[in-house]
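We modelled the chain as a single entity of 127 amino acids. Its sequence is:
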Amino acid sequence: MGEDMENVVLKKRLNTFRTAKGKLSRVSDEVIMEVLRAWESWPGTSKEFYQDLSLSKQQLAILIKKGKKLIRNGIVVESEFSEIKVAAPETKEIVSCGNKIVLKWEKGNTIHFAKVDQLIDFLKKVA
């Protein structure tokens, strides 16, 4: 119910950008980012999400596209994710831990793989 309550507030914020005919117009970057974050954490289907916000499928797609563009162009900075560059290691050790594979990388870093195929793809890319 917590997510639904958050969507009620988000829906009201979106409604402030609706024209008399019901179209969304000039949605602020802040609200666009709220929609993107809510969509990314939504546990249900996208149809349930856009219906919950009283949006059409196309309106949701446009808002998500604009949100991703804001991040890509550096207008909005997401602090939760930071990209790390992986260099080929001098030494590597592969250890199996139950159902997953743990790759002990240089400087004490470890990378977990759920499937052997993922490990193979990874090793091919860094080779």
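As a brief sanity check on the tokenised model: The two ends are 48 Å apart (CA to CA). Strands lie at 93-97, 100-104, 110-113.
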